[in-house]
Amino acid sequence: MSSLELVICVCVMAVVAALLIPSYITFTQQSRVLALVLPRLQQLESNIALFYIFEKKLPSRHDLPELMNGIDHENLDIVLTGGVITLTILAPDSASKVHILDGTTMVASPVIGPVAISTWHLSGELAERLGIDN
Q: How many domains does the chain divide into?
């Protein structure tokens, strides 16, 4: 292999790396946020679904402390209005792994079936950025 071929090969690899590294970083950040948000959101959704089954109504903001019992909400602001969850990322510290998403919001709205909550509709900037909006 001549030195010119080697230089061309190194240049091609550098271009490919320059294109792939930002995608990898974005994917890594999305994974961190999903690991932070989704388990907590799913726990809260389950608690609300159980509340709905037993109480025959959606919980209000006054029920939130009871529904959040045992759920870690660090870096999250969670508001409950008529069974609709509004979750906002709170990460003002630039050293935080999710700082780039500080202030972004996701809304989880229950879809009520004949007897219980059948599913949840996710929307908002955070849901869009994570690719989980529906």
A: 1
